[in-house]
Amino acid sequence: MVQTNTMEGSLFEPTLYIIKGMCILDNDGNRILAKYYDKNVLPTAKEQKAFEKNLFNKTHRANAEIIMLEGLTCVYKSNVDLFFYVMGSSHENELILQSVLNALYESVSILLRRNVEKRVLLDNLDAVMLAFDEICDGGVILDSDPGSVVSRAALRADDVPLAEQTVAQVLQSAKEQLKWSLLK
């Protein structure tokens, strides 16, 4: 029996964990919103911010849509004063990553009523965070249709803000969400 290195074997096995991270940076390269799903790639906030600065420096003047950086395939899109990024492993299919990027960008665009600017995004950050969660969970792509992402994010955004809820309301909401996720 031939043994393979488990590290090598895991690199090319099919997996649902496609997305390594998604982020939105401003036109100075500062983080507005970021989620990283693989703790082995960029485990600390310091490493993440250093990566984001490097990523921004390599892409903010470029007119390409894809870059390989530090072992990651990164697809990106800019608009006015924002940069949207989706990262996957170096062997990941760029079309899948581009599909997730388009879902992210279009969802944010719809949520912000086509006014995709830093100020408007910050005013609606809760809805944008919900869109992030509706698109990807733990690196697994959940949805790439902006219409359905927005409908679910908007539905959840209409709920009472978490800070204004009692502990009982938060627990009840969590029970309801768990119940609906199990029923699907």
TrEMBL record:
Pfam families: Clat_adaptor_s. It is found in: Cytoplasm; Golgi apparatus membrane; Cytoplasmic vesicle, COPI-coated vesicle membrane. Residues 19-156 form the AP complex mu/sigma subunit domain. GO terms for cellular component: COPI vesicle coat; Golgi membrane. Keywords: Cytoplasm, Cytoplasmic vesicle, ER-Golgi transport, Golgi apparatus, Membrane, Protein transport, Transport. Its main location: cytoplasm. Coiled coil: none annotated. It is a peripheral membrane protein. GO terms for biological process: intra-Golgi vesicle-mediated transport; intracellular protein transport; retrograde vesicle-mediated transport, Golgi to endoplasmic reticulum. Belongs to the adaptor complexes small subunit family. The coatomer is a cytosolic protein complex that binds to dilysine motifs and reversibly associates with Golgi non-clathrin-coated vesicles, which further mediate biosynthetic protein transport from the ER, via the Golgi up to the trans Golgi network. Coatomer complex is required for budding from Golgi membranes, and is essential for the retrograde Golgi-to-ER transport of dilysine-tagged proteins. The zeta subunit may be involved in regulating the coat assembly and, hence, the rate of biosynthetic protein transport due to its association-dissociation properties with the coatomer complex. Oligomeric complex that consists of at least the alpha, beta, beta', gamma, delta, epsilon and zeta subunits. PANTHER family: COATOMER SUBUNIT ZETA, ZETA-COAT PROTEIN. This is Coatomer subunit zeta.
